Amino acid sequence: xxxxxxxxxxxxxxRSPRARRRAVVGLVVAFIFVAVxxxxxxxxxxSGLAPESGVVHLAGLTAPVKxxxxxxxxxxxxxxxxxxxxxxxxxxxxQDRLFQLEMRRRLAEGGLAExxxxxxxxxxxxxxxxxxxxxxxxxxxxxxxxxxxQVDAFVGGINxxxxxxxxxxxxxxxxxxxxxxxxxxxxLEAGALTIAMLLGYNATEESVYINLAPKxxxxxxxxxMPVYPSLPLEAPPPETTALFGGAKLSFHLTPGFARIGHxxxxxxxxxxxxxxxxxxxxxxxASDPHLPQSIPSxxxxxxxxxxxxxxxxALAAGSPAVAIGTNGHVAWGVTSVxxxxxxxxxxxxxADGMNYEFQGxxxxxxxxxxTIHVRDASDVTRTILSTRHGPIVSDVLAREDNPLSGVKMRxxxxxxxxxxxxxxxxxxxxxxxxxxxxxxxxxxxxxxxFTTTPLNLVWGDDSGNIGWHIVGAIPNRTGFDGKYPTAxxxxxxxxxxxxxxxxxxxxxxxxxxxxxxxxxxxxxxxxNGSWVAPWRFDRISDLIRAGDKMTADHFKxxxxxxxxxxxxxxxxxxxxxxxxxxxxxxxxxxxIRGWDGAMTANSRPAAIVAATEVTMARRVFKPLLGDxxxxxxxxxxxxxxxxxxxxxxxxxxxxxxxxxxxxxxTLRASLKDSLALLASRLGNDRDKWRWGALTTIEFTHPLGxxxxxxxxxxxxxxxxTEGGRHTVNNSWFDLGDAPDQFxxxxxxxxxxxxxxxxxxxxxxxxxxxxxxxxxxxHYDDMIGPWSRGEYHALDPSYSRAQSSAEAELxxxxx
Length: 814
Description:
Layout: H1 17-46, E1 54-58, E2 65-69, E3 75-78, H2 82-109, H3 113-116, H4 121-129, H5 132-140, H6 145-164, H7 171-176, H8 185-198, H9 203-212, H10 218-224, H11 238-244, E4 252-253, E5 269-273, E6 284-288, E7 290-291, E8 299-306, E9 309-316, E10 324-326, E11 330-336, E12 342-348, E13 355-358, E14 361-364, E15 366-372, E16 380-387, E17 390-391, E18 407-408, E19 413-419, H12 432-436, H13 440-446, E20 455-461, E21 466-471, E22 475-477, E23 486-487, E24 495-498, E25 506-508, E26 514-517, H14 535-546, H15 552-559, H16 565-577, H17 583-592, H18 604-625, H19 629-636, H20 643-649, H21 662-682, H22 691-694, E27 696-699, H23 708-714, E28 716-720, E29 731-733, E30 744-748, E31 750-755, E32 763-766, H24 783-787, E33 792-793, H25 798-803, E34 807-813
Parallel strand pairs: 1-34, 3-8, 12-23
Antiparallel strand pairs: 2-3, 2-34, 4-18, 5-6, 5-26, 6-31, 7-30, 8-9, 9-10, 10-11, 11-20, 12-19, 13-14, 15-16, 16-17, 20-21, 21-25, 22-24, 27-28, 29-30, 31-32, 32-33
């Protein structure tokens, strides 16, 4: 039998000298190829990393400026005057965030499709609807001379960096094949409009109402659209029902329309205590705004010093002024008021589409042509129509995943959108006054010119005072509160300007010795709001009441708190519903019955209760709403007080499915559903179920949104996270259908703590890093410390900054 080749003795294979030489040459070539490609990759990815040390000649300076970078990459800028300080700040922001600045400018002006292609035409069109160029021009025209000089210096610093680095731009510019344009003061104000739209409220609710009005009774709509736990349910007025609920008009809103003007989620905290509750005897303040996570962060940290004082804290990237921080005399923080600043108005158009009716008269429609440049495609030109109430939005046709989708109607009717955020004013530069305020009253006065989305301004000063003042533009309505859409053609639902600044709610030195805001309804106001339930407000207030002689460590603990008051309410409702003799439900109740409500990563009860919140929403609303369920869940996930929480607060709600068992049976079934959901996500081994395995967070760059190689290079994560929808340490997740369930869409984007007894020891923490360059060491270095609840000092001391400096840059006059 012949021997199998593999069984015979192994013979030494002979290779000729020529073959050996070829092999060696091949290896050398391969080595050279790998080395060259590695070098090219390194060169490409390192491009645009500007030196943080050395000497730079900067035109426009009147004296040298020192920029010292600490170990977090935060610039400590030391200048001899405020104009030089503003110019240096513009230069360092461009050094760290040039691509972000360019994207912010294009977003505000509706110019993203020119870079990214046809997918963003509709997004650009949404911003063009509000005529950002006119808004910006009108806003800049309100600048007083000193403010204009500082803004021009800031913009000059940005442009000086751009001019000096056109040939050494970061990889994002090279990938897109673009170069940054010069910045202007108008760009700053247009950028402020994007923030106003991010935090604009109520168009979502009104659009959902229009979709539901012809199909549901007013009482059902009132239950589906609660305003606040302590307020009675408010049904639409009879005239509104007659107008929108009848067969005369036919509305069709695709689910994407529910996101119009409301692309953010209201969830932020700030609080202040006076000296009777602090160890130092002086006011202490904390602020942590909750916004969608991103890389780079929306926030830019800086310490700004001149001979007449300092300011430290967080600025919105592209802004010249500190939004959350301290100047040594005053400390301040902001949250969204969640006031209703948007109204949808029904407009009656003439048959030829040239005019609209108002109080029985026909007025000409304003027409404005806009051209959107599109990458690798033809330009798109559209005509925007506007009435006295604002732009017509019902002619916009878009996909569901875009911010604004179509509204189709029968007859000569259309919807226009009024938006208080379009009130012109120096909103982007208002913070210059904060830097020089010496008392809380002066700080509040500096916000008098702030005319965009309303904010809760909370403050403390070194004289021992604390206070709260709503600032910003809130419509002054007469005879209606703005919750539901109105008949604009009648003229009976007009705005009488904005509520005067001095008439906005405010308090100073309350007898409680502390003030908390958390997007909740803080005053008995006559206007509508998209408020958040007081779960975070109550939790913070309870922790402060329980504290005595509080320190920064106490405030850190509160900002890191993960207890969900609503989750405890849901737990109690589930326990009260009983197990119904179901073994699985009995096991789940045994798991959650003694739970403390902490949404920690290793908690199995947290996973069970959170999953039940998801399954309960589907059990209650899917049979009731049918095809409108998906659209409605967009409303539930915007963060305003949702019906999915209200049915727990009002257990007798008419929304619970009718039939045997009612609410109790639905709760038991939802709990059982949650076990199946967890098994599908985490496997059948219940010992491995934990909250951190179910919810994760990813920090996404604009160029990494579609994943792939660019996602690998630009994005960071996903990472395990903690907290939940209703926790102080916020990790908001969606309830909607898979794959969005449990997807974290918002976080505590910045954390700040200041004690007015030691304002130089103020603490801060951004959620990603100071740079927008993926190869920079400060691109993502704060993710770990942020997730662990750590902080770094924002110390203005020159000597201490130098002693621990990571880099020093000298800016000298040219």
